[in-house]
From TrEMBL:
Keywords associated with the record: Cell membrane, Membrane, Transmembrane, Transmembrane helix
Protein name (database record): Amino acid ABC transporter permease
Pfam families tied to this protein: AA_permease_2
Transmembrane segments: 44-62, 74-93, 129-151, 157-174, 181-201, 228-250, 271-298, 318-341, 370-389, 395-417, 438-458, 464-485
Location of this chain's protein in the cell: Cell membrane
Major subcellular site: membrane
Domain of life: Bacteria
Family matches, as InterPro entries: AA/rel_permease1 (IPR002293), APC_superfamily (IPR050367)
Topology in membrane: Multi-pass membrane protein
Lineage: Bacteria, Pseudomonadati, Pseudomonadota, Alphaproteobacteria, Hyphomicrobiales
GO molecular function: transmembrane transporter activity
GO cellular component: plasma membrane
């Protein structure tokens, strides 16, 4: 485990004594961290796969729900959101090697703005990473139902089986986890490349006929040729949460810092290579999946848009075979984001923000097994609640869209806080060693914050998904109450906390 240990007697508040912002640190000995060790394995290639793999399912399902506002809305929303992610990822590429701890976003905010800001950011990211696998496994269930012809009521069985299998793989250990990540990410990208090339060579791509087959009233235009922006400028803003799905979770890479051999050197390379790969693929899938039958109108309500595209290209029978391969893309993200919520819960509990027993690692595997199981149970519980409240017949637009918007709401707040963290770190910690510096600087962080805030605002004003976002706000209120009453008196000098209370002067050590 990597520990920013330094000299706690000089920099840290005495354990058990209330410090700034009403925070109290609890005394622990070395055995506490001994029970919470991680194992190093990742290098640049693994980090690239972790970032791309976490996102790639968004190119298979989810993004397409934004097409209900027309292709033009999806196109412009994708441009705007890509700009936001460039600002975010380059900022993270600078912050992560400067603060190479598992805490990631929480660590950035904690160091720059204090424990309350760290907790607010941590909860936002926790919502994102716990609910994102729930969205993905919903679409896995949709694909598997289409392949095997099972009834909608059978979907929860797919969900439970997927969680059990991939939580198990993550518990086995980081070596196997990263090997699986690299393999499934490469297969997922290969499947997308096959689709892109097939569309271009098939002669079936007709942009005007299929991508522009939505009228101003939202109805289907059988012959296409509709307006580029059928819902006007407002449609772009309404579509932005769905465009997020083309990139969401690339920011999880810093959570692997303590399992990376050289985070100061490898983390920036992995993050930047990952976002550039995703931007290219995102625009390919938006154009090519929309430009063939059944077109924007048809796939806007689909739970398996890539499968619909394969059906158009190759017919139903061959498409089922290809769809079985396409499920790998969803599995890539499902597997890697399970890794993310395990590390995210681990880091917050190791520091005492969550109950500390959640951060205990497996005796021989050194994986955060309790955090992994807890995150899976939370995500599955939310899915089942929505499933029973909305009904199995609600479909991808309602169930998948509700889960997606809940995850995106958490992400937008986390992005806003990370942009702010970057700005404050630049101003308050100019002495901090920065192995990599973002070419966009503070301007990139500001752009990220503005777009994230606009996206979150339009989520609150969307009547279809307003309840989901309000549900996230309620969860936030409950967790803030927990921290106010209990959590803030139980903090522990974890690597992130040690580094923060020392004003960035604590020595970074490996154990």
């Amino acid at each position: 485990m990597s520990v920013g240990q330094g000299n706690p007697g000089v920099h840290a508040p005495p354990a058990g004594v209330q410090g700034a912002a009403g925070i109290t640190y609890t005394t622990v000995d070395e055995s506490y961290f001994e029970a919470r060790r991680l194992r190093r394995h990742a290098r640049v290639w693994s980090l690239w796969a972790l970032g791309v793999g976490a996102v790639i399912s968004g190119h298979y399902s989810g993004w397409n729900l934004g097409l209900v506002n027309g292709f033009g809305s999806m196109f412009f929303a994708t441009i705007i959101i890509a700009i936001m992610y460039l600002g975010l990822t380059f900022s993270i590429a600078e912050m992560s090697p400067a603060l190479p701890h598992t805490g990631g976003a929480y660590s950035f905010a904690r160091t720059s703005m204090g424990p309350w800001a760290g907790y607010i950011t941590g909860i936002a990211e926790n919502i994102e990473f716990v609910l994102t696998p729930a969205v993905i496994v919903f679409f896995i269930g949709s694909y598997l139902s289409a392949i095997f012809g099972t009834a909608p009521e059978f979907q929860p069985v797919y969900w439970v089986l997927c969680y059990a299998l991939f939580v198990g793989l993550n518990v086995v250990g980081v070596e196997l986890s990263f090997k699986v990540t690299v393999a499934v990410t490469l297969l997922a990208l290969a499947c997308l490349v096959v689709f892109y090339v097939s569309v271009l060579l098939s002669g079936q791509f007709d942009f005007s006929r299929w991508a522009l087959n939505i009228g101003p009233d939202g109805a289907e235009l059988p012959n296409g040729g509709g307006p580029f922006l059928p819902m006007g400028i407002g449609g772009i803003f309404a579509t932005m949460p769905f465009a997020v799905w083309l990139f969401l979770a690339i920011e999880q890479l810093p959570l692997a810092a303590e399992e990376s051999h050289d985070p100061q050197r490898d983390m920036p390379k992995g993050i930047i290579a990952g976002i550039l790969t995703l931007i290219v693929s995102a625009f390919c899938v938006v154009f090519l999946n929309s430009g063939i039958a059944p077109g924007a109108f048809g796939i806007a309500k689909s739970g398996e848009p890539l499968l619909d595209g394969f059906r158009t290209l190759f017919g139903t029978d061959i498409a089922k075979i290809l769809a079985a391969v396409a499920v790998i893309g969803l599995i890539a993200s499902f597997h890697t984001i399970i890794f993310a919520f395990g590390r995210q819960i681990y880091s917050l509990s190791r520091a005492g923000y969550f109950p500390s027993f959640l951060s205990v690692t497996h005796g021989t595997r050194k994986s955060p097994h309790i955090a992994l199981i807890t995150g899976a149970l939370l995500g599955l519980a939310v899915m089942l609640i929505i499933w029973f409240v909305r009904g199995s017949e609600a479909g991808a637009t309602v169930i998948g869209g509700t889960l997606l918007n809940m995850a995106v709401a958490g992400a937008m707040l986390a992005y806003f806080m990370q942009g702010m963290s970057y700005i404050v770190l630049k101003k308050k910690f100019p002495h901090l060693a920065r192995p990599y510096k973002s070419p966009f600087g503070i301007a990139g962080a500001v752009v990220c914050m503005v777009i994230a805030a606009i996206t979150l605002y339009f989520q609150f004003t969307d009547p279809v998904f307003q309840t989901a976002v309000i549900g996230v706000a309620i969860y936030y209120a409950v967790m803030m109450a927990y921290f106010l009453v209990h959590g803030r008196h139980k903090l522990i000098l974890s690597p992130e906390e040690e580094f923060a209370v020392s004003k960035g002067e604590a020595e970074y050590k490996s154990y």
